[in-house]
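job 3f2a | input accepted
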Amino acid sequence: MSTLSTNINSNSSSYKSNREAMLQLIEKLNKYKAESLYQGKERHIQKAKSEGKFSARERIELLLDENSPFMELLPFAGLSDKGSEGGTTTVGGIGLVNEKLCMIISNVGTNKGGAVNLATLNKSFRLGEIATENALPTITLVESAGADLTEQAKIFNYGGASFRNITRNSKEGNASISIVFGNCTAGGAYVPGMSDYTIFVKGNAKVFLAGPPLVKMATNEIVDDESLGGAEMHSRISGVSDYLAENETDAIRLARSIVANLRPAQTNFSPPAEVAEPKFNSEELLGIIQADVKKSFDAHEVIARIVDGSIFDEFKPEWGNTLITGWAKIHGYSVGIIANNGVLFSESANKGAHFIQLCNKNLTPIIFLQNITGFMVGKQYEEGAIIKNGAKMINAVSNSEVPAITILMGASYGAGNYAMSGRAYQPRFLFSYPNSKIAVMGAEQLSGVMEIIQRQAVEKMGGNYDEAQASMFRNHLMGEVEKQSNAFYASSQLWDDGIIDPRETRNYLGFCLAVVNNKPITSENKYGVFRM
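job 3f2a | predicted structure (532 res):
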């Protein structure tokens, strides 16, 4: 094992100017974070308070252990130019409840009644996927008007999967707990109906497949909502409720008691109480990570600021060196690290595939630090079988079974995204830096390729290529690609689990490693055919 050194000059003009550019991106990130905290119009929030209700985020705070971290996930899902009202109507993340890691999902009842739009549905699917993969109990804080009927065509056919997933998670032994704080109507009633444990708040919980107006329309029966689906009826007559809570505070107390009685997690590994901090300041990451993804930086400098004691045992350091591979510890957890240090050549792809196999043999989680423009192209490299060798690494990533955690540090283009465990390759967690870009290729390259294709098509037909029109089209296309490849757009589309400040990388990785070690790590180390 060797301790990494640094070549960073924090007094250089390039370092300082890049740091300023990154700070501007962090400022933009904080603006989006503030927008994501939106919980509805003020009059709706005040009305809820007058009814003795807490906000969605207050409920989470009361549920969590004192001083527990809360890793919020997908906070920017659905955010757009429409602002905060265009986002989701749920808050989700992982925290400690009675010293057990739990997935917590809280409906924002003060925002559109907590109605489920498409972004909310997709966010819920991803949160459920994370809970299942990491054997986490799920606590749902329910207050929802059900499906957003204005988007019913988009969500109805897929929405049923959310109920299916609750039962499948239960089958795996991962408890589901629902606390119903308010309305829970139509399909939403199946959330508590399919949960292992249910808690209804007296006077406020209203759970029914059809509310009084629809009942009257369907059957001509006149009934009030309390007798139709109130907490006391469901606790004393229907049995849908397991616990009748006096108020919201009592409901949260009951939920914490349920969690206390759940079986302990089959933890794969518990780290030591004391670990060595990196020898270099994480603040320096803002000067190292390049705000302009077209500029390169040495990934060793990043690794030196996130691993314990800045100690890194590099694998094959003299071969395929555009890909860094090696072992380290982060907050006491053993990890394999794969980091880009340039374009992927055949040697680096083969090295990556080899290292992934070793991590699976050793049952070691893998951290992917992405900053990749893709695989090397050109006649020489095609003859050197870049396709075949790149396919080996993608094969290895596809079939790797140890947990993977991916950080997008800069560019994430083309098949490089795939080889470095992009979203389609199902890493347990994927976070982006605010400078990152994700697309088939960079905006300049894409617009240039399109121009060449169009020029050749016109010339083939014997026409004259309109340079002025081409320039307008190129500039428009570049703008669209830039807009749709930046980190904030990507996060709104759920292509990551959130955007993080680079200085928080070590903390996020440490928490994620605790989550993925919540259950045993296994691997059969089997792969598809490697084309030799």
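job 3f2a | The first helix runs from residue 13 to 36.
job 3f2a | closed
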